Amino acid sequence: MGVIHLREFLAHFVLFSDPVALQHILVSNGTNYPRKQIMMDYFGDLTLGGGLLGVDGKLHDSYRKMMNPLFAVSKIKSFVDVFNSQTRLYCENYLEPACDTKVPINLANMFTKLALSIVGLTLLGFDFDKSPVALEAYEQSMMEVSPLTLIGVFTIPGFLSFPFPSFVQRRKAQDRLRKIFMQIIHDKLAAFVSKEPKDLLDMILPHATTQEALSHTMTFILAGHDTSSNTLGFVFGTLTSYPDTIAAIRAEYQKVIAHYGSLNSWDAIAELEHTHAVIQQTLRLNAVAFSTIQRTTLDDRVPMSDGSKQFIPKDTNIYIVMAAMHRHSKYWSNPTKFIPERFIEGTPEWNADMRLRGGKSHAFHYMPFSMGGNNCIGQRFAMAEIQLIVATLLSKYDFTPTAKMNLCQEFSGITLKPVNVEMTVRRVGAS
C-alpha cells in the first residue's frame, strides 16, 4: 500500500514508497518534514561545521538561495575542461600502466581519487594529487564504518566525540584538514580583487563567513566526490555483463567526437544520450543516496495514490527509501532488469513504463538525487562529470572483472558503494 510502520530499537518509523505521499512530504508540505536532528549533527561533523547537509529551516534556505546560481549550467560549463583534463590524466597515470603491466586495478579506488581531484580543482583550485598531506588528512578524517559505530552515531547524541582511539585519530585528521582549507580561504581573501572567479570558493567567499566557507567547502568535497565515484564503480562493474551496451556507448562517443572534435564542451556532453541513460539506469538499481530520514513537526494527513490519507502524528520519524521506489513493479516494467532504454524518451521501454504509471513521468518514482528543497544541488555537475568519464574510458579501454569483483552494496558512511571493482584493463583493439 506504499506505507509501512516499523520499529528500530525504541523508535518508531514510517516508511513511505508512494509517489503522491513523497511529493507531499518532500515538496508540497516539505517545511513540516525537516531532516532528523541526529542526521544533521552527523553530517555537520563530517563537514566541519554545517553547510547544506548540517542545517535546516531558514538557514538552509538562505544557503541554498546563495549557492543555487553557482551550480547553474552556465557555471558548470566552465568546469568541463577540468573534467576532461583530469580524466585523461588518470588514463595516463593509472590505466595505461595497468594495460602495460596487466596487473589488476581496483577501479573504485581510482574513481575516488579522480572525483576528489576534480572537485578539489573546481571547488577551490586545489590539486589533491599534488598534496599527499591533504589527501591523507582527508582520508583519515572519514569515519570508519562498522555496525556498532553506526548504531552509536544514530542513537547516541555526541557519540563521535567519545574518546575512542580511532575517534581521537579522526579528530586530529579533521584538525589538519581544517587548517589546510582555512589557509586556502585566508590566502584567497588576502589576494581577493575584483576579477572573474576561477572556482566555486571564489564565488562563495563574498557571501559567507570563513567558517561558512569552510563548511561549504567540506560539504561539496564530501558530496561531490563520494556520489560520483561510487556511481562510477557501479556503472563500470555492471557494464562488464552488457557488451551490447558498451558498444552503443562507444558508437555514440564516436558520433559526438566526429561532430565536436572532443568532449571538452557542455554541448558535446549533452549529446551523450545513451551514456546518460546508462547512468540513470545504474542509479535506479543502485541508488547510492539510498534514503533520507525526516521528522514531522506537526500532525499531518499524508495523501496516497489511492485517494486515501495516512495520519502521521507529530514527531514521527519518516523513512524515504529511494531504492524501494526504484524497483517497484507497479511503476517499472521488468523492475530488476538493467534496461537503459527505459530512460530514452520514445523507446518501447520508455513507453512501457509510462503505461504502468498511467502516462506520468518518472518524477517521484525515480529520485537518485532526492526532490524538493533538500535535493542534491550538484546533480548537473555530477551527471556531466560521470558522462564524460564513462564515455572517455570506454572509448579507450576494455575492462574485465577479476574473481575479486563484488558489486554488493556496502555503506560508505555517506552513500552506498560497491564492495570491490577490481578489473584487468586492455586497450580497445589490443589482442
Describe the SSE topology.
Elements: E1 3-8, E2 11-16, H1 19-28, H2 37-46, H3 51-54, H4 57-67, H5 73-76, H6 80-101, E3 105-106, H7 107-124, H8 132-141, H9 147-155, H10 165-190, H11 200-204, H12 210-239, H13 243-260, H14 266-270, H15 273-285, E4 291-295, E5 300-303, E6 309-312, E7 317-321, H16 322-326, H17 348-356, H18 379-396, E8 397-401, E9 406-411, E10 416-420, E11 422-427
Parallel strand pairs: 2-7
Antiparallel strand pairs: 1-2, 3-11, 4-7, 5-6, 8-11, 9-10
Helix pairs in contact: 6-7, 6-18, 7-12, 8-10, 10-12, 12-15, 12-18, 13-15, 13-18
Keywords: Heme, Iron, Metal-binding
Binding site for heme: 376
Protein name: Cytochrome P450
Walk me through the structure.
The protein is an alpha+beta fold and 431 residues long. It has a single domain, classed as Orthogonal Bundle (Cytochrome p450), CATH 1.10.630. 53% of the residues lie in helices and 13% in strands. The protein has helices at residues 19-28, 37-46, 51-54, 57-67, 73-76, 80-101, 107-124, 132-141, 147-155, 165-190, 200-204, 210-239, 243-260, 266-270, 273-285, 322-326, 348-356, 379-396, and strands at residues 3-8, 11-16, 105-106, 291-295, 300-303, 309-312, 317-321, 397-401, 406-411, 416-420, 422-427. Strands 1-2-7-4 form a 4-stranded mixed beta sheet. Its cofactor is heme. Belongs to the cytochrome P450 family. This is Cytochrome P450.
